[in-house]
């Protein structure tokens, strides 16, 4: 089969190579799937650079989530059949940026029929992260104000839709007028172009000085630091990631004085500690997709040969929504 492989670490455009590799075989509890669609995610960028918390042995094929068609079953797999359309995370080194991938049956789910392959492939990491962050970690309530950073990106766009589905008032922060329009189309009640406006001042003005009840921050660095200046009394700042490249330190005295919470979210740990909750989340996301309340924003659909370019564009911060590879 053809697959993109990383043999050395560096920038995606420099280290990703399209090569012929042997077809994978499933072991007990695994599936082999024909990849129908696989979105680029920031963890793919970080793994190419060797900076992600998961560091697969070289060589490996990135692509941390996918929609696929089951073509082979490992011993003991009874929950799926050949021909089923599924979504989930692949088992590295056989990631989604190839013609075939390997998946653990225990962390694989039926693809929602209301979503096409590209949309379904994007419903796993970003939307599960948003669901666990907003509902389980931050306890977002109807009528509260949710501030979403990078609101036109893959992770942020999911948070905007999930926030609206929960009945929150959503303020989206983006970089540039094109991304502001995307955030509005996603349902954001207020959009802020951080290049032209100070989001701290806009949030204060929009909330009568109270601030945001929940801040969804996949950026980190100065974005986090400035968010502490517009967080409400008993607000919650969700630390989702550090796409901005800087891991900030939290001033705990400030959290004490302003009476807000700093809430960490590592969604992947739920697969280890509470897999039942992950399955429950998938069922709720499937329900929301069926109702039309959530629909992943797929901005580009790339052929297999365009993977390196697409992942590098994500690394450079020039993408909107999800860039999805469809082999």
TrEMBL record:
InterPro entries: ADH-like_C (IPR013149), ADH-like_N (IPR013154), ER (IPR020843), GroES-like_sf (IPR011032), NAD(P)-bd_dom_sf (IPR036291), Quin_OxRdtase/zeta-crystal_CS (IPR002364), Zn-ADH-like_protein (IPR051397). SMART domains: PKS_ER (SM00829). Residues 11-325 form the Enoyl reductase (ER) domain. Coiled coil: none annotated. GO terms for molecular function: oxidoreductase activity; zinc ion binding. It holds the Pfam family ADH_N. Gene3D superfamilies: Medium-chain alcohol dehydrogenases, catalytic domain, NAD(P)-binding Rossmann-like Domain. This is NADPH:quinone oxidoreductase family protein.
């Amino acid at each position: 089969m053809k697959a993109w492989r990383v043999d050395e670490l560096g920038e995606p455009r420099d280290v990703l190579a399209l090569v012929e590799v042997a077809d994978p075989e499933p072991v007990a509890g695994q599936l082999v799937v024909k990849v129908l669609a696989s979105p680029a995610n920031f963890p793919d960028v970080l793994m190419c650079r060797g900076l992600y918390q998961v560091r697969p042995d070289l060589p490996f094929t990135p692509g941390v989530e996918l929609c696929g068609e089951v073509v082979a079953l490992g011993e003991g797999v009874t929950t799926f059949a050949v021909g089923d359309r599924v979504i989930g995370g692949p088992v590295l080194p056989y990631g989604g940026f190839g013609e075939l991938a390997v998946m653990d049956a225990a962390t694989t789910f039926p693809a929602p029929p209301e979503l096409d392959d590209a949309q379904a492939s994007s419903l796993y990491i970003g939307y599960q992260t948003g669901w666990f962050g907003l509902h389980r970690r931050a306890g977002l309530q109807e009528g509260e104000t949710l501030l979403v950073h990078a609101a036109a990106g893959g992770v942020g766009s999911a948070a905007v839709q999930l926030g609206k589905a929960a009945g929150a008032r959503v303020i989206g922060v983006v970089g540039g007028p094109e991304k502001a329009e995307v955030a509005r189309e996603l349902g954001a009640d207020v959009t802020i172009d951080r290049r032209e406006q100070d989001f701290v001042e806009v949030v204060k003005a929009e909330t009568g000085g109270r601030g945001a009840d929940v801040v969804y921050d996949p950026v980190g660095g100065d974005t986090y630091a400035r968010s502490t200046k517009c967080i409400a009394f008993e607000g919650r700042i969700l630390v989702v990631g550090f796409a901005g490249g800087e891991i900030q330190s939290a001033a705990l005295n400030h959290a004490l004085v302003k009476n807000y919470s700093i809430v960490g979210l590592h969604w992947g740990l739920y697969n280890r500690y509470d897999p039942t909750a992950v399955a429950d989340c998938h069922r709720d996301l499937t329900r929301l997709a069926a109702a039309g309340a959530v629909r992943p924003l797929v901005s580009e659909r790339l052929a297999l040969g365009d993977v390196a370019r697409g992942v590098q564009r994500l690394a450079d911060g020039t993408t909107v929504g999800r860039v999805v590879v469809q082999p």
